[in-house]
Amino acid sequence: MTDTEVEEIKLLPCEPGKLTTADLKTLFLFEKLTDEQLTWIAEHGCTMHAPAGSLVLREGDPADQFFILLTGTIALTRRIGQDDVQTTRTEQRGVYMGATQAYIRDEGVERKYMASMRALDDADFFMMSAADFGQMMRDWFPMAIHLLEGLALGMRSTQAAISERQRLTALGALSAGLMHELNNPAAAASRATSALRQRVAGMRHKLGMLAAGKVPPERLVALVELQEEVIERAAKAPVLTAMQTADREDELGDWMDDHKVTGGWDIAPVFAQGGIDVDCLEEIAAKVETAGLLDQAIHWIGYALETEQLMSDVEDATSRVSNLVNAAKQYSQMDRAAHQWIDVHSGLDSTLVMLGHKIGQGVKVVKDYDRTLPQIPSHPAELNQVWTNIIDNAVQAMTGAGTLTVKTYRKDDYVVVSIGDTGPGIPEALRKRVFEPFFTTKPVGEGTGLGLDISYRIVTNGHGGDIIVESQPGDTRFLVKLPITEPSSR
Protein backbone atom coordinates (compact mmCIF):
# COMPACT_ATOMS: atom_id res chain seq x y z
CA MET A 1 0.00 0.00 0.00
CA THR A 2 1.38 3.42 -0.95
CA ASP A 3 1.38 6.47 1.31
CA THR A 4 -1.49 7.99 -0.68
CA GLU A 5 -3.73 4.91 -0.36
CA VAL A 6 -6.02 4.64 2.65
CA GLU A 7 -6.99 1.22 3.92
CA GLU A 8 -10.73 0.67 3.94
CA ILE A 9 -12.39 -0.50 7.16
CA LYS A 10 -14.39 -3.64 6.39
CA LEU A 11 -16.35 -5.00 9.35
CA LEU A 12 -19.19 -7.47 9.55
CA PRO A 13 -22.59 -5.93 10.42
CA CYS A 14 -23.38 -5.32 14.06
CA GLU A 15 -25.92 -7.72 15.62
CA PRO A 16 -28.24 -6.03 18.18
CA GLY A 17 -29.29 -8.01 21.24
CA LYS A 18 -26.61 -10.66 20.87
CA LEU A 19 -25.42 -10.40 24.49
CA THR A 20 -27.64 -11.14 27.47
CA THR A 21 -27.52 -9.33 30.78
CA ALA A 22 -25.72 -12.35 32.20
CA ASP A 23 -23.06 -12.08 29.50
CA LEU A 24 -22.61 -8.38 30.15
CA LYS A 25 -22.18 -8.99 33.87
CA THR A 26 -19.06 -11.07 33.13
CA LEU A 27 -17.30 -7.95 31.79
CA PHE A 28 -15.43 -6.09 34.51
CA LEU A 29 -16.80 -2.72 33.38
CA PHE A 30 -20.37 -3.83 34.04
CA GLU A 31 -20.05 -6.29 36.94
CA LYS A 32 -21.47 -3.86 39.53
CA LEU A 33 -24.45 -2.67 37.50
CA THR A 34 -28.07 -3.54 38.23
CA ASP A 35 -30.16 -5.82 36.04
CA GLU A 36 -32.11 -2.80 34.85
CA GLN A 37 -28.92 -1.04 33.80
CA LEU A 38 -27.59 -4.17 32.09
CA THR A 39 -30.85 -4.49 30.18
CA TRP A 40 -30.52 -0.90 28.95
CA ILE A 41 -26.96 -1.55 27.79
CA ALA A 42 -27.97 -4.77 26.01
CA GLU A 43 -30.72 -2.90 24.19
CA HIS A 44 -28.45 -0.02 23.14
CA GLY A 45 -25.41 -2.10 22.20
CA CYS A 46 -24.58 -4.75 19.65
CA THR A 47 -21.89 -7.29 18.86
CA MET A 48 -19.56 -7.09 15.88
CA HIS A 49 -17.10 -9.52 14.32
CA ALA A 50 -13.76 -8.39 12.83
CA PRO A 51 -11.87 -10.84 10.60
CA ALA A 52 -8.18 -11.46 11.31
CA GLY A 53 -5.99 -8.68 9.97
CA SER A 54 -8.81 -6.19 9.52
CA LEU A 55 -8.60 -2.55 10.57
CA VAL A 56 -11.27 -1.86 13.20
CA LEU A 57 -10.78 1.88 13.72
CA ARG A 58 -8.37 4.41 12.27
CA GLU A 59 -6.41 7.09 14.11
CA GLY A 60 -7.81 10.54 13.34
CA ASP A 61 -11.30 9.36 12.37
CA PRO A 62 -14.26 10.71 14.37
CA ALA A 63 -14.56 8.80 17.64
CA ASP A 64 -18.18 7.68 17.30
CA GLN A 65 -18.02 4.15 18.74
CA PHE A 66 -17.08 2.61 22.10
CA PHE A 67 -15.59 -0.91 21.81
CA ILE A 68 -15.21 -3.71 24.39
CA LEU A 69 -13.18 -6.77 23.39
CA LEU A 70 -14.98 -10.08 23.84
CA THR A 71 -12.66 -12.53 22.07
CA GLY A 72 -9.52 -12.39 19.95
CA THR A 73 -6.34 -10.35 19.97
CA ILE A 74 -6.05 -6.71 18.99
CA ALA A 75 -3.21 -4.21 18.59
CA LEU A 76 -3.28 -0.43 18.95
CA THR A 77 -0.85 1.62 16.83
CA ARG A 78 0.14 5.28 16.48
CA ARG A 79 1.29 6.78 13.21
CA ILE A 80 4.80 8.30 13.52
CA GLY A 81 6.19 9.59 10.25
CA GLN A 82 5.86 6.80 7.72
CA ASP A 83 5.67 4.06 10.37
CA ASP A 84 2.89 2.55 12.47
CA VAL A 85 4.27 2.11 15.99
CA GLN A 86 2.50 -0.50 18.10
CA THR A 87 1.62 0.82 21.55
CA THR A 88 -0.61 -1.96 22.91
CA ARG A 89 -1.24 -5.62 22.13
CA THR A 90 -3.81 -7.52 24.19
CA GLU A 91 -6.24 -10.40 24.23
CA GLN A 92 -7.74 -9.55 27.64
CA ARG A 93 -11.49 -9.91 27.59
CA GLY A 94 -13.28 -6.73 28.60
CA VAL A 95 -10.61 -4.20 27.63
CA TYR A 96 -12.13 -1.10 26.06
CA MET A 97 -11.09 1.47 23.50
CA GLY A 98 -12.50 4.01 21.08
CA ALA A 99 -14.78 6.77 22.36
CA THR A 100 -13.55 6.41 25.94
CA GLN A 101 -14.14 10.10 26.76
CA ALA A 102 -17.50 10.54 25.10
CA TYR A 103 -19.04 11.47 28.46
CA ILE A 104 -16.93 14.65 28.76
CA ARG A 105 -18.75 17.69 27.42
CA ASP A 106 -16.69 18.84 24.46
CA GLU A 107 -18.51 22.11 23.64
CA GLY A 108 -18.65 21.28 19.96
CA VAL A 109 -15.03 20.10 19.62
CA GLU A 110 -14.94 16.93 17.52
CA ARG A 111 -13.32 13.97 19.26
CA LYS A 112 -11.13 11.66 17.21
CA TYR A 113 -9.63 8.26 17.75
CA MET A 114 -6.14 8.68 19.23
CA ALA A 115 -4.86 5.39 17.77
CA SER A 116 -5.65 2.77 15.15
CA MET A 117 -6.90 -0.68 16.18
CA ARG A 118 -6.38 -3.86 14.19
CA ALA A 119 -7.67 -7.37 14.84
CA LEU A 120 -4.64 -9.68 14.80
CA ASP A 121 -6.92 -12.72 14.65
CA ASP A 122 -10.67 -13.17 14.45
CA ALA A 123 -12.10 -10.84 17.11
CA ASP A 124 -15.53 -10.06 18.54
CA PHE A 125 -16.56 -6.80 20.18
CA PHE A 126 -19.48 -5.37 22.09
CA MET A 127 -20.18 -1.89 20.75
CA MET A 128 -22.11 1.17 21.79
CA SER A 129 -22.40 4.49 20.00
CA ALA A 130 -20.45 7.36 21.56
CA ALA A 131 -23.72 9.23 22.04
CA ASP A 132 -25.36 6.35 23.96
CA PHE A 133 -22.26 5.64 26.01
CA GLY A 134 -21.78 9.30 26.92
CA GLN A 135 -25.44 9.79 27.83
CA MET A 136 -25.43 6.61 29.95
CA MET A 137 -22.40 7.75 31.90
CA ARG A 138 -23.78 11.23 32.53
CA ASP A 139 -27.20 9.96 33.63
CA TRP A 140 -26.04 7.09 35.83
CA PHE A 141 -22.87 8.51 37.37
CA PRO A 142 -23.30 12.31 37.51
CA MET A 143 -20.98 12.86 40.46
CA ALA A 144 -18.23 10.76 38.93
CA ILE A 145 -18.63 12.61 35.62
CA HIS A 146 -18.37 15.98 37.37
CA LEU A 147 -15.17 14.82 39.06
CA LEU A 148 -13.72 13.45 35.81
CA GLU A 149 -14.64 16.57 33.86
CA GLY A 150 -13.14 18.73 36.59
CA LEU A 151 -9.98 16.64 36.54
CA ALA A 152 -9.69 16.84 32.75
CA LEU A 153 -10.44 20.55 32.64
CA GLY A 154 -8.12 21.24 35.56
CA MET A 155 -5.26 19.35 33.93
CA ARG A 156 -5.78 21.19 30.64
CA SER A 157 -5.95 24.55 32.37
CA THR A 158 -2.91 23.79 34.51
CA GLN A 159 -0.92 22.59 31.56
CA ALA A 160 -1.91 25.63 29.49
CA ALA A 161 -0.99 28.04 32.32
CA ILE A 162 2.33 26.35 33.02
CA SER A 163 3.12 26.12 29.30
CA GLU A 164 2.45 29.84 28.93
CA ARG A 165 4.56 30.58 31.99
CA GLN A 166 7.35 28.42 30.65
CA ARG A 167 7.25 30.20 27.30
CA LEU A 168 7.41 33.58 29.02
CA THR A 169 10.24 32.44 31.28
CA ALA A 170 12.15 31.06 28.31
CA LEU A 171 11.54 34.28 26.38
CA GLY A 172 12.78 36.34 29.33
CA ALA A 173 15.89 34.21 29.70
CA LEU A 174 16.62 34.40 25.97
CA SER A 175 16.03 38.17 25.94
CA ALA A 176 18.37 38.66 28.91
CA GLY A 177 20.99 36.51 27.23
CA LEU A 178 20.62 38.37 23.95
CA MET A 179 20.91 41.75 25.67
CA HIS A 180 24.06 40.54 27.44
CA GLU A 181 25.53 39.31 24.15
CA LEU A 182 24.62 42.58 22.40
CA ASN A 183 26.04 44.70 25.20
CA ASN A 184 29.57 43.31 24.80
CA PRO A 185 30.13 44.24 21.12
CA ALA A 186 28.21 47.51 21.56
CA ALA A 187 30.46 48.51 24.47
CA ALA A 188 33.54 47.44 22.49
CA ALA A 189 32.45 49.55 19.52
CA SER A 190 31.86 52.53 21.81
CA ARG A 191 35.30 52.21 23.43
CA ALA A 192 37.02 51.77 20.08
CA THR A 193 35.23 54.81 18.63
CA SER A 194 36.29 56.97 21.57
CA ALA A 195 39.90 55.83 21.27
CA LEU A 196 39.76 56.28 17.50
CA ARG A 197 38.79 59.94 17.91
CA GLN A 198 41.86 60.52 20.08
CA ARG A 199 44.19 58.74 17.66
CA VAL A 200 42.92 60.68 14.65
CA ALA A 201 43.49 63.91 16.55
CA GLY A 202 47.03 62.73 17.36
CA MET A 203 47.67 61.92 13.70
CA ARG A 204 46.61 65.43 12.68
CA HIS A 205 48.96 66.87 15.31
CA LYS A 206 51.92 64.72 14.20
CA LEU A 207 51.27 65.47 10.55
CA GLY A 208 51.40 69.18 11.38
CA MET A 209 54.71 68.69 13.20
CA LEU A 210 56.13 66.77 10.24
CA ALA A 211 55.05 69.49 7.85
CA ALA A 212 56.52 72.20 10.11
CA GLY A 213 59.82 70.35 10.24
CA LYS A 214 60.73 71.45 6.73
CA VAL A 215 60.86 67.90 5.44
CA PRO A 216 61.88 67.72 1.80
CA PRO A 217 58.77 66.92 -0.30
CA GLU A 218 60.27 63.73 -1.67
CA ARG A 219 60.98 62.51 1.88
CA LEU A 220 57.42 63.27 2.99
CA VAL A 221 56.01 61.46 -0.06
CA ALA A 222 58.25 58.47 0.67
CA LEU A 223 57.11 58.48 4.30
CA VAL A 224 53.44 58.48 3.28
CA GLU A 225 54.12 55.58 0.89
CA LEU A 226 55.91 53.73 3.67
CA GLN A 227 52.92 54.30 5.96
CA GLU A 228 50.66 52.62 3.38
CA GLU A 229 53.12 49.73 3.07
CA VAL A 230 53.18 49.32 6.86
CA ILE A 231 49.38 49.27 7.05
CA GLU A 232 49.18 46.73 4.22
CA ARG A 233 51.81 44.59 5.94
CA ALA A 234 49.82 44.78 9.18
CA ALA A 235 46.67 43.57 7.38
CA LYS A 236 48.52 40.50 6.10
CA ALA A 237 50.52 39.83 9.26
CA PRO A 238 50.25 36.32 10.69
CA VAL A 239 48.68 35.93 14.11
CA LEU A 240 51.37 35.62 16.80
CA THR A 241 51.16 33.61 19.97
CA ALA A 242 51.27 35.41 23.30
CA MET A 243 54.93 34.44 23.73
CA GLN A 244 55.86 35.55 20.22
CA THR A 245 54.06 38.87 20.72
CA ALA A 246 55.92 39.49 24.00
CA ASP A 247 59.29 38.75 22.35
CA ARG A 248 58.45 41.04 19.42
CA GLU A 249 57.49 43.88 21.82
CA ASP A 250 60.84 43.51 23.61
CA GLU A 251 62.78 43.68 20.33
CA LEU A 252 60.88 46.74 19.12
CA GLY A 253 61.13 48.50 22.51
CA ASP A 254 64.89 47.96 22.62
CA TRP A 255 65.28 49.31 19.08
CA MET A 256 63.27 52.43 19.89
CA ASP A 257 65.30 53.01 23.06
CA ASP A 258 68.51 52.77 21.03
CA HIS A 259 67.16 55.31 18.53
CA LYS A 260 65.91 57.73 21.22
CA VAL A 261 62.21 57.37 20.32
CA THR A 262 60.14 58.92 23.11
CA GLY A 263 57.63 56.60 24.75
CA GLY A 264 58.94 53.70 22.73
CA TRP A 265 57.68 51.07 25.18
CA ASP A 266 54.16 52.43 24.80
CA ILE A 267 54.31 52.30 21.00
CA ALA A 268 56.02 48.89 20.74
CA PRO A 269 52.83 46.84 21.50
CA VAL A 270 50.99 48.64 18.69
CA PHE A 271 53.73 47.80 16.19
CA ALA A 272 53.96 44.21 17.46
CA GLN A 273 50.20 43.70 17.12
CA GLY A 274 50.42 45.12 13.61
CA GLY A 275 53.03 42.54 12.60
CA ILE A 276 55.85 45.09 12.34
CA ASP A 277 59.39 43.88 13.03
CA VAL A 278 62.78 45.54 13.48
CA ASP A 279 63.57 45.36 9.75
CA CYS A 280 60.52 47.52 9.03
CA LEU A 281 61.68 50.06 11.63
CA GLU A 282 65.06 50.19 9.91
CA GLU A 283 63.31 51.05 6.62
CA ILE A 284 61.44 53.88 8.34
CA ALA A 285 64.67 55.16 9.90
CA ALA A 286 66.46 55.12 6.54
CA LYS A 287 63.81 57.39 5.04
CA VAL A 288 63.53 60.02 7.77
CA GLU A 289 66.53 59.81 10.11
CA THR A 290 68.62 62.15 8.01
CA ALA A 291 65.90 64.74 8.39
CA GLY A 292 65.91 64.30 12.16
CA LEU A 293 62.25 63.36 12.22
CA LEU A 294 62.44 59.70 13.26
CA ASP A 295 60.60 60.26 16.55
CA GLN A 296 57.67 62.07 14.92
CA ALA A 297 57.53 59.57 12.03
CA ILE A 298 57.42 56.57 14.39
CA HIS A 299 54.61 58.14 16.40
CA TRP A 300 52.70 59.11 13.26
CA ILE A 301 52.91 55.60 11.79
CA GLY A 302 52.02 54.22 15.22
CA TYR A 303 48.86 56.32 15.24
CA ALA A 304 48.05 55.09 11.72
CA LEU A 305 48.49 51.47 12.81
CA GLU A 306 46.40 51.91 15.92
CA THR A 307 43.72 53.70 13.91
CA GLU A 308 43.52 50.70 11.56
CA GLN A 309 43.33 48.32 14.51
CA LEU A 310 40.58 50.36 16.15
CA MET A 311 38.58 50.49 12.91
CA SER A 312 38.90 46.69 12.70
CA ASP A 313 37.62 46.48 16.27
CA VAL A 314 34.63 48.65 15.38
CA GLU A 315 33.94 46.55 12.28
CA ASP A 316 34.18 43.30 14.27
CA ALA A 317 31.90 44.66 17.01
CA THR A 318 29.23 45.93 14.62
CA SER A 319 29.41 42.67 12.65
CA ARG A 320 28.86 40.81 15.88
CA VAL A 321 25.79 42.93 16.62
CA SER A 322 24.46 42.30 13.10
CA ASN A 323 25.07 38.54 13.42
CA LEU A 324 23.26 38.46 16.76
CA VAL A 325 20.27 40.30 15.31
CA ASN A 326 20.21 37.94 12.33
CA ALA A 327 20.42 34.96 14.70
CA ALA A 328 17.52 36.34 16.71
CA LYS A 329 15.45 36.77 13.53
CA GLN A 330 16.36 33.26 12.41
CA TYR A 331 15.50 31.86 15.82
CA SER A 332 12.11 33.58 16.03
CA GLN A 333 11.41 33.00 12.30
CA MET A 334 10.22 36.60 12.10
CA ASP A 335 8.70 37.49 8.71
CA ARG A 336 8.88 33.86 7.61
CA ALA A 337 6.22 31.31 6.71
CA ALA A 338 5.10 29.02 9.52
CA HIS A 339 5.82 25.93 7.40
CA GLN A 340 8.78 25.75 5.05
CA TRP A 341 11.62 23.60 3.79
CA ILE A 342 14.76 24.34 5.82
CA ASP A 343 18.37 23.42 6.37
CA VAL A 344 18.22 22.07 9.91
CA HIS A 345 21.66 23.54 10.69
CA SER A 346 20.47 27.15 10.47
CA GLY A 347 18.06 26.64 13.37
CA LEU A 348 20.67 24.80 15.43
CA ASP A 349 23.22 27.58 14.91
CA SER A 350 20.80 30.37 15.76
CA THR A 351 19.69 28.52 18.91
CA LEU A 352 23.31 28.09 20.03
CA VAL A 353 23.86 31.81 19.50
CA MET A 354 20.73 32.69 21.47
CA LEU A 355 21.79 30.40 24.32
CA GLY A 356 25.43 31.50 24.24
CA HIS A 357 25.18 33.39 27.53
CA LYS A 358 23.54 30.44 29.28
CA ILE A 359 26.03 27.93 27.86
CA GLY A 360 28.90 29.93 29.32
CA GLN A 361 32.66 29.60 29.01
CA GLY A 362 32.94 26.32 30.92
CA VAL A 363 31.01 24.31 28.31
CA LYS A 364 32.79 23.42 25.09
CA VAL A 365 30.47 23.30 22.08
CA VAL A 366 31.37 20.75 19.39
CA LYS A 367 29.54 20.84 16.05
CA ASP A 368 29.68 17.72 13.88
CA TYR A 369 27.41 18.63 10.96
CA ASP A 370 26.75 16.67 7.80
CA ARG A 371 26.39 19.58 5.41
CA THR A 372 25.20 17.27 2.60
CA LEU A 373 21.86 16.67 4.33
CA PRO A 374 18.81 17.68 2.29
CA GLN A 375 16.33 20.29 3.39
CA ILE A 376 13.37 19.00 5.37
CA PRO A 377 9.73 20.14 5.69
CA SER A 378 9.17 21.71 9.07
CA HIS A 379 7.74 24.39 11.31
CA PRO A 380 11.13 25.99 12.06
CA ALA A 381 10.03 28.18 14.97
CA GLU A 382 8.68 25.08 16.72
CA LEU A 383 11.86 23.11 16.02
CA ASN A 384 13.90 25.94 17.51
CA GLN A 385 11.85 25.48 20.67
CA VAL A 386 12.82 21.80 20.64
CA TRP A 387 16.53 22.63 20.28
CA THR A 388 16.20 25.23 23.08
CA ASN A 389 14.60 22.79 25.52
CA ILE A 390 17.08 19.97 24.87
CA ILE A 391 20.20 22.17 24.86
CA ASP A 392 19.04 24.00 27.99
CA ASN A 393 18.55 20.68 29.81
CA ALA A 394 21.96 19.47 28.64
CA VAL A 395 23.70 22.62 29.89
CA GLN A 396 21.96 22.39 33.25
CA ALA A 397 22.95 18.73 33.56
CA MET A 398 26.63 19.64 33.14
CA THR A 399 26.42 22.38 35.82
CA GLY A 400 28.67 24.77 33.95
CA ALA A 401 31.46 22.44 32.79
CA GLY A 402 31.58 19.79 30.08
CA THR A 403 31.15 19.24 26.36
CA LEU A 404 27.98 19.87 24.38
CA THR A 405 28.02 17.94 21.11
CA VAL A 406 25.56 18.76 18.33
CA LYS A 407 25.72 16.24 15.50
CA THR A 408 23.62 15.75 12.38
CA TYR A 409 23.46 12.77 10.04
CA ARG A 410 21.08 10.84 7.83
CA LYS A 411 19.53 7.50 8.75
CA ASP A 412 17.23 5.91 6.17
CA ASP A 413 14.59 8.52 5.30
CA TYR A 414 15.25 10.69 8.33
CA VAL A 415 17.54 13.55 9.27
CA VAL A 416 18.81 12.86 12.79
CA VAL A 417 19.92 15.62 15.15
CA SER A 418 21.92 14.30 18.11
CA ILE A 419 22.41 16.64 21.08
CA GLY A 420 24.75 15.14 23.66
CA ASP A 421 26.23 16.21 26.97
CA THR A 422 28.83 14.88 29.39
CA GLY A 423 26.64 15.22 32.47
CA PRO A 424 25.90 12.51 35.06
CA GLY A 425 23.33 10.78 32.84
CA ILE A 426 19.69 9.79 33.32
CA PRO A 427 19.00 6.62 35.35
CA GLU A 428 17.18 3.91 33.41
CA ALA A 429 14.16 4.09 35.73
CA LEU A 430 13.71 7.79 34.90
CA ARG A 431 14.57 7.50 31.21
CA LYS A 432 11.12 6.10 30.43
CA ARG A 433 9.44 9.11 32.04
CA VAL A 434 11.40 12.08 30.70
CA PHE A 435 8.74 12.86 28.08
CA GLU A 436 5.84 12.67 30.53
CA PRO A 437 4.08 15.99 31.20
CA PHE A 438 4.96 17.58 34.57
CA PHE A 439 7.74 15.06 35.23
CA THR A 440 11.03 16.72 36.19
CA THR A 441 14.16 15.81 38.10
CA LYS A 442 14.99 19.46 38.78
CA PRO A 443 14.50 21.04 42.22
CA VAL A 444 11.19 22.72 42.97
CA GLY A 445 10.91 26.02 41.12
CA GLU A 446 13.57 25.19 38.52
CA GLY A 447 11.51 23.15 36.10
CA THR A 448 7.91 22.61 35.06
CA GLY A 449 8.37 19.17 33.53
CA LEU A 450 6.82 20.37 30.27
CA GLY A 451 9.87 21.20 28.14
CA LEU A 452 10.51 17.68 26.87
CA ASP A 453 6.80 16.86 26.74
CA ILE A 454 6.25 19.88 24.47
CA SER A 455 9.33 18.93 22.42
CA TYR A 456 8.10 15.37 22.01
CA ARG A 457 4.67 16.52 20.81
CA ILE A 458 6.22 19.02 18.38
CA VAL A 459 8.45 16.36 16.84
CA THR A 460 5.98 13.44 16.78
CA ASN A 461 2.65 15.14 16.20
CA GLY A 462 3.80 18.22 14.32
CA HIS A 463 6.56 16.71 12.19
CA GLY A 464 5.91 12.96 12.07
CA GLY A 465 9.27 12.24 13.69
CA ASP A 466 10.49 10.75 16.94
CA ILE A 467 12.77 11.52 19.89
CA ILE A 468 14.92 8.85 21.52
CA VAL A 469 17.08 9.28 24.62
CA GLU A 470 20.26 7.27 25.18
CA SER A 471 22.11 7.81 28.43
CA GLN A 472 24.93 6.58 30.57
CA PRO A 473 27.17 8.51 32.99
CA GLY A 474 29.18 11.04 30.98
CA ASP A 475 27.27 10.49 27.74
CA THR A 476 23.60 11.46 27.35
CA ARG A 477 22.19 11.95 23.87
CA PHE A 478 18.78 13.03 22.64
CA LEU A 479 18.24 11.82 19.07
CA VAL A 480 15.63 13.80 17.15
CA LYS A 481 14.48 12.02 13.96
CA LEU A 482 12.81 14.23 11.34
CA PRO A 483 11.42 12.83 8.07
CA ILE A 484 12.97 14.07 4.85
CA THR A 485 9.61 13.98 3.06
CA GLU A 486 6.25 15.44 4.05
CA PRO A 487 4.58 13.21 6.68
CA SER A 488 1.57 11.25 5.55
CA SER A 489 -1.75 12.92 6.22
CA ARG A 490 -3.24 9.68 7.51
Could you characterize what this model shows?
This protein has a 5-stranded antiparallel β-sheet with strand order 1-2-9-4-7. The chain has a 5-stranded mixed β-sheet with strand order 11-13-14-16-15. Strands 3-8-5-6 form a 4-stranded antiparallel β-sheet, with no helix packed on it. 29% of the residues are buried. With 490 residues, the chain is of the alpha+beta class. 50% of the residues lie in helices and 19% in strands. The chain has helices at residues 21-25, 35-44, 130-140, 142-212, 217-236, 242-258, 264-273, 278-288, 294-332, 344-354, 356-359, 380-398, 428-431, 451-463, and strands at 15-16, 45-50, 55-57, 65-71, 74-80, 83-90, 96-98, 116-119, 123-129, 340-342, 363-368, 376-378, 402-411, 414-421, 466-472, 475-483. It starts with 14 loop residues before the first strand and ends in a 7-residue tail after the last strand. It has 14 helices and 16 strands. It catalyses: ATP + protein L-histidine = ADP + protein N-phospho-L-histidine. Residues 306-486 form the Histidine kinase domain. One of its GO terms (biological process) is phosphorelay signal transduction system. Residues 29-137 form the Cyclic nucleotide-binding domain.
